[in-house]
Amino acid sequence: MSDIIEYKCPQCGGSIEFDSGTQKMKCPYCDAEFEIEALKQFDEDIKNTEGNDMTWDSAMGAEWTAEDREKVTVLVCDNCGGEVVGDATMAASSCPYCDSPIIVKGAIGGELKPDYVIPFKLDKKAAIEGLKKHFMGKKLLPKAFKDENHLEEIKGVYVPFWLFSASSNANVRYKATKLHTWSDSNYIYTQKKFFSCYRSGSIAFENIPEDGSSKMPDDLMESLEPFYFKDAVDFQTAYLSGYLADKYDVAEEECVDRANLRIKQSTEQEFAGTVKGYSSVVAEDSNISFEHAEAKYALYPVWLLNTTWNGQKFVFAMNGQTGKFVGDLPMDKSLRNKYFLLSSGIAAAVVMLVQFLLWMI
Length: 361
What we know:
3 domains, 7 helices, single chain
């Protein structure tokens, strides 16, 4: 008994059958037609596709030395459990995450010492001005929120990042389409052709940042990018003077999947730029293997303000290197309704004016 070979439609994924009229394989779901030899080659290409080999050499940074431990102090928040590192002269302060008082806990433990740090390029005054500019032009921002915000409590925090660098070899298969449309006196016709396109090559990635703090929202930290590694220097405890440093609580291994996804998406996007002459190009499959893949540990500068208003928490952050400012703002519902009614009234008046002019004509 011979095996029954089932082919899947490259367009919709449905099972396709041989059509005796056209002598081609036809999909009963989307009506696409395919040459038999093309389908065989397509299946062979899929079977021969290798899996990803995206493994990393673990960060083998040094631990804090006895001399370093004498120069730094760990502070812990009793409310949210957040831990930050400051220099030995750092007094009790408020938590940069929830504004609750934090107390001195003791010396730093056996965590890895950062490999690099990007020192703050912008001071507290610049951060306060950045927040004020962030408020400007926001007509629906409640006045009380702007007036009652604790601008002076904005804090400079070094945020821990794992930096992933690798040379990668990639093979990507794309599904591309070409559309041709024409018409006659009765109908409009559309012809859709499908193509498999392959791209392979090498691409290097350097210092892809992934947030190593669970207290810092990943989307907020990604919104602050880019940080420019050209300003990074070897870490010294002196850079902590006057600032806090968040302790990493998300291990390198926990950030690998996010780094791999960014590399995969960036590779597919870059290679897709070379597939030209088609109506659409979609990545169907890719395999990526790494060479010289390594991760490093670094501290990046962020000005941070956590504030609560009407029972809702708001987080504002500024890139301490570039000045990029991010953060969601509340909306005054009464002002929103007023603007909506005003705009609706204006729109209605315009419609009535147009109708009147048409009637006059």
